[in-house]
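Data card: per-record layout.
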Amino acid sequence: MNDIFACGCRRGLCREAKPTCEHHLRVRPSASIVSIDQNKDYRKDNAIEYPTQSQRVHYHEPVCAIGHPSLKIYKFQLPPHLLHLLDYIVIRCDDYAATLPGGWMTYLYSLTKQDIALRDVPEMYNAAMPIISYVKSTIKRMYDVNHVKIDRNQPHVLRYSAEGGCKHTGVELHHDKCSLTANIMMSRSNSYVGGGTYFPDAKTTVKLEFGEFLIHPGKIVHAGVDITKGTRTLMILFTHIE
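The structure for this 242-residue chain is written out next.
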């Protein structure tokens, strides 16, 4: 069937007046590469370290393009000086989730279910700002736009888990109601089995390593492939371009 169904949403503009979610619609059926140590702990003893001027190098060229160039799906790598922020943010989100009645099962978005908006976690929006700025500047460069805006629940951290009481292992085919979506991998590949983002139009599943991020147009149908073991965590940004 080709019907498209709107999903519900606990927060956002649709909470009070709209029955549809502003971000998801459910659908039925090279430059030099920086080497990243997947096993290294980049937390720097849990302290936030911002890059010095000499560290602010640019790695905006994509690691690769996904599918046909017309799809405009690209994979990138965060620069090394930002990687420790990923570990730090995950730890703080875990701590915050432990204070909630449902833990990670917040239903911030009804499709993905286990999401935490960084604005809800004390200090974490500011902690993520270097990553947000880097992703936004990458979008400006790759998509030739002047302005990139994010919604009020952005960025949010998405958790897939195949273990524990709240299992949420993947998400069905859908598209996002935004201009561009960025997915940043916050987990090491040895912490889960399965996973990836499936794009029917590209006929491929994209798997990210720690510190890599994927940018794709929100209108492109995609799915979160189920994990069968472990935990997979990503930072997501729904963006609007001008």
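Known properties of this structure: The longest strand covers residues 227-241. Residues 1-36, 42-57 have pLDDT under 50 and may be disordered.

See the next section for split statistics.
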